[in-house]
Write a structure and sequence with these properties.
Layout (H helix, E strand, L loop, with lengths): L7 H16 L9 H5 L2 H19 L9 E6 L3 E4 L15 E4 L4 E3 L8 H10 L5 E5 L2 H7 L11 H6 L4 E2 L8 H5 L10 E4 L3 E6 L2 H24 L8 H14 L19 H16 L4
Parallel strand pairs: 6-7
Antiparallel strand pairs: 1-2, 1-5, 2-3, 3-4, 5-8, 7-8
The structure holds zinc ion (ZN).
Length: 289
């Protein structure tokens, strides 16, 4: 009796599926602290933190041992900078692994004292995957006056940041200080810390640093423009609405828009990816691709 031949697409599918399964990297939340700290993802994030730390120092947004950076690693962990180290001198071994309660799980150095601030932001807003605190001079100049820069002047600022917020003053490093950001952390990705500096959150460390750059450059431009002695020209309201439409599409928060919900977890794309791979391999085998 002749055995029914298995369609080639089915055979290819089995091979590709087995290969994908063999290559599957466990999610960070499945890992022990030491395995998470030694994962490829952690290694890449440490490199990103070091690169951004260097940018902050080069731009003079951090002074002495000032400033700190953290990033979520899966659902259970985060990586953060240590205390008492210049952000321009970071090495991979300096970066600490912490849980969401601030307990250090891996790393030889004590964590930044401002991790409490970062933790409050992560707990309050799951959209925050990276947090960065620094002391950029022009934005901090506004922060010591307890005021925020005007809005409606430059499109990029409207889209990426928009109306900034300023906290009340509390002693840095304390839980009371960490909680000063809570009223603002949903509608603002960039917050001025009274008599201190700024804090930004974003999806990546690199993007959080962009926010610091955009805010500080905007504050500098506003201060220079005010010295010209002419009235500032504001973007018309209907054009601001166009910018807010772009902002909504890009997923940035803004108190002028309805609050954006946390992005839902991406649907498992495994089947779609698998189908596409099978189609490509079959096409090759049949001489179509
Ligand atoms: Zn600080």
């Amino acid at each position: 009796m002749e055995q029914a031949a298995i369609p080639i697409a089915e055979q290819v599918r089995e091979v590709v599926q087995a290969a994908m399964e063999a290559l599957r990297v466990p999610a960070s939340e499945d890992l022990s602290p030491s395995a998470a700290a030694n994962s490829f993802e952690a290694e890449a994030l440490r490199c990103e933190i070091i690169k951004v730390g260097r940018k902050l120092w080069d731009r003079q947004y951090v002074d002495g041992n000032g400033g700190n950076i953290s990033v979520r690693l899966g659902q259970k962990y985060l990586l953060c900078t240590p205390t008492m180290l210049s952000k321009g001198d970071l090495e991979p071994a300096d970066i600490c692994l912490s849980d969401l309660e601030g307990n250090i799980l891996a790393g030889d150095r004590p964590r930044t004292s401002e991790l409490l601030l970062h933790l409050e932001i992560y707990k309050a807003n799951p959209r925050a995957r990276a947090v960065l605190h620094c002391h950029p001079p022009y934005a901090t100049a506004f922060a010591i006056t307890g005021t925020v820069p005007p809005v409606g002047l430059i499109p990029e600022y409207e889209i990426f940041i928009g109306p900034a917020a300023v906290t009340r003053y509390e002693t840095p490093g304390t839980q009371a200080f960490a909680e000063t950001v809570l009223p603002f952390v949903h509608d603002h990705n960039t917050i001025l810390l009274a008599n201190h500096g700024i804090v930004c959150w974003s999806d990546t460390v690199t993007h959080a640093e962009w926010l610091a750059e955009i805010l500080d450059t905007y504050c500098k431009t506003c201060l220079i423009a005010q010295q010209i002695g002419k009235p500032l020209t504001v973007i018309p309201d209907e054009k601001i609405q166009e910018l807010l439409a772009i902002k909504r599409r890009m997923g940035f928060p803004d108190a002028r828009m309805a609050r954006l919900s946390e992005p839902s977890c991406p649907a498992p794309a495994a089947n779609a990816d698998l189908d596409r791979l099978v189609e490509q391999v079959v096409a090759r085998l049949e001489g179509r691709g």
